[in-house]
Amino acid sequence: MATNLHLPSTLTSHADVLEIFDVEYCQPVGCSLDTFLDSLRTPPLSTVLRYNHSEIDDSIPLEEQERIIREGLQTVNKERLLGRSLKINQVAGLSDVWTCEVEDSGSDIYPVEDDEEKPMNVIVDTAAGEALLRGSNLFASGILACIGNMRAGQRVSVYCDVEKKCLKGRVANFLGELYFVGSGIAQVHRTDLYTHQPINGIGILMDRPRFNLLSLSEFLTSHPSFSSPNLPSCVAVQVLGPQPQETILDCCAAPGGKTLHIASLMRNTGRIIAVEKSSERAEKLRRATAHCRNVDVICADVSKLRDNTKADLPTSFDRILVDAPCSASGQRPRLSFRSLQVNQLESCPKVQKKILHSIVPLLKSGGGRLVYSTCSVLRRENEDVVAWLLRQHPELRLCQQTPHFGGVGFPVSGLTSQQSGLLQRFSMLPGVDGDSIGFFVALFEKV
Fold it and tell me: Which one from 160, 166, 251, 375 is the annotated catalytic residue?
């Protein structure tokens, strides 16, 4: 039975943001707020790779894909694979999608302790810290501060400035909140970092990351036919079910991972209209999809697409993907929620509803399919939006999703238990639903 929990309308503080997450996520899944916050700092331990068929005309057999992945990852992850094997699995039900992880590395899910010799400390911002937790090496440009006179070849411990208070170039000891993300070997001197000439390349080779994940940047650079999406993103596209020769609308399409996946499943046939509001992001999307013969990128506000007389648009679409702008509250690792404001959490559902309401008339009647997805864990951006859309558009009905790897939706007012069961929720709690980011998928059909 759905429960209606009322929150104050004038929430402003960080504590109020946490209260929203406690009410809308922790209580429904039965975990404490502390467990939720701890899970934020833990990355999914499996790496996902997907082969893009649209890169070239001919398919590469699965056996060849596995060989390329195994040899490529072993080459660029020699230090991290010492004494361990690489486990690679093709994901059943998802075309050309693979999970990769370091096998027999159970101890690696626990933090690596600082070295006893108390090495030099390096401080990075939250963006760099989150990238390091996902398996990256630390680029020189990402080093915020060095506490001490760091030299190339020296082992250093790397910490993230959680509260965003450390000034770039700091030398004296820093007393703000820090989070240990691993240790590595410095590739540069401290004196080289803070000059007028920026340094490119790797600054710290992270041979002892906090979590023993695979490093991907070199592999992806040398193998452009592969990408590294999150598993639920692949599920959302597969649930959409694009077919060759169809006409597809991809709303809010940048940076283009799902657009490329759709093009791959359509074998570069049919037509995909990929819409992005930001001109800068639209240009990047054009570059990312330049090799795809069936993708047209339009820089426009998708909520006003029906009024766009300049674009050569179809009158209707067989399938529509709305991977909506959201709070991104399901992304992990995430080292801090301090930048997230209550007004953002209040505005996201308004934007999501505006987009959905505007594009439903563009969906073909008599079987057109619409996928709505977010990387948010909040009820207000997921089940509540679904219930609202069904009220506003009785011509839509929820459908069974294939594949369905995640859990079911939360019980909310406006949805029956059967309807909630048709929704797909990926938990962000480690070890649950394939150890994924938090994600939500709903599939509608227009009768």
Answer: 375
- Give the tens place of pLDDT for each residue, 70-115: 999 999 988 888 878 899 999 998 978 999 998 754 444 333 444 4
Clarify whether 146 is annotated catalytic: no
**Residue 199 CB neighbours (<10 A):** 17
Angle CA 283–286–288, to nearest 5:
110
Closest by CA to 84, choosing from 73, 92, 69, 99, is 73
Q: What is the DSSP string of 367-401?
A: TEEEEEEES---GGGTHHHHHHHHHH-TTEEE---
Task: Map residue 114 onto helix, strand or coil.
Answer: coil
Q: Which of 66, 56, 119, 59 is nearest to 89 (CA)?
A: 66
Contact criterion met (CB below 8 Å) for 262 and 272? yes
- Round to whole Å and give the CA distance between 30 and 267: 43
For position 149, what pLDDT does the model report?
79
For helices 383-392 and 342-359, what crossing angle results, to 10°?
Answer: 30
Contact 208, 112 (CB under 8 A): yes
Burial (CB count <10 Å: 0-12, 13-18, 19+), residue 90: middle
State the Rg of the chain over Cα.
23
The closest of 438, 329, 436, 429 to 45, measured between CA atoms, is 436
Tokens at 18, concatenated: 């946490």
Instruction: Give the integer Cα–Cα distance in Å for 301 and 194.
Output: 41
Provide φ and ψ at 156, rounded to 5°.
Answer: -130, 150
pLDDT below 50 — which residues of the chain? 1-11, 56-57, 105-116
Asked whether 439 and 230 are in contact (CB, 8 A), the reply is yes
Pairwise CA distance, residues 386 & 374, whole Å: 12
Token pair of 405 as six digits: 């790897």
Give per-residue pLDDT as tens, 302-316.
999 988 767 788 989
222-226 long-range contacts, CB within 8 A, separation 24+: 222/72, 223/68, 223/72, 224/55, 225/51, 225/52, 225/55, 225/56, 225/60, 226/49, 226/50, 226/51, 226/52, 226/68, 226/69
DSSP structural state of residue 193: H
- Largest pairwise CA distance in the chain: 69
